[in-house]
Amino acid sequence: QVQLVESGGGLAQAGGSLRLSCAASGYTFNNYAVGWFRQAPGKERDFLACSSRTGVFTYAKDSVKGRFTISRDNAKNTVYLQMNNLRPDDTAVYYCGAVFRVGSTDCVTNRNLYSYWGQGTQVTVSS
Fold first, then answer.
1. What is the Cα–Cα distance from 25 to 89, expressed in whole angstroms?
2. Closest by alpha carbon to 90, among 98, 77, 81?
3. How far apart are CA 5 and CA 117, in angstroms?
4. How buried is residue 124: exposed, middle or buried, by Cβ count under 10 Å (0-12/13-18/19+)?
5. Where residue 1 falls among pLDDT bands split at 50, 70, 90?
6. Residue 62 backbone phi and psi in degrees, to 5
7. How many CA atoms lie within 13 A of 54 on its CB side?
8. Count H helices, E strands: the chain?
9. Which terminal Cβ of the chain has fewer Cβ within 10 Å, N or C?
10. Tens digit of pLDDT for each residue in 34-60?
């Protein structure tokens, strides 16, 4: 069965860094675009960054651009989110998702289009 398992979350100080990983199994990883989202208490799950299935094209929302970087290693069936210069308002549960895409440069920002999700990993940033 399809599984996405996030790891790498935890407690960080403001200005610090964390690297999240999302390991995929049960499907052909390089047929799927991937994305990172986060959800703070009482809020919706928000898009952060996406990568095309080949990794050639990536996109991050403006509010995290320059701080967060998505990447993927198709040989390891893993997608990463490098988070630098963390702020207290980055505190949330972080999720990775996967969506089937034919196009090699397709990058999906709409969470409703994602087929698979991980269980999430908590990131807490202290001031």
1. 31
2. 81
3. 9
4. middle
5. confident
6. -55, -40
7. 7
8. 0, 11
9. N
10. 999 999 999 999 999 999 999 999 999
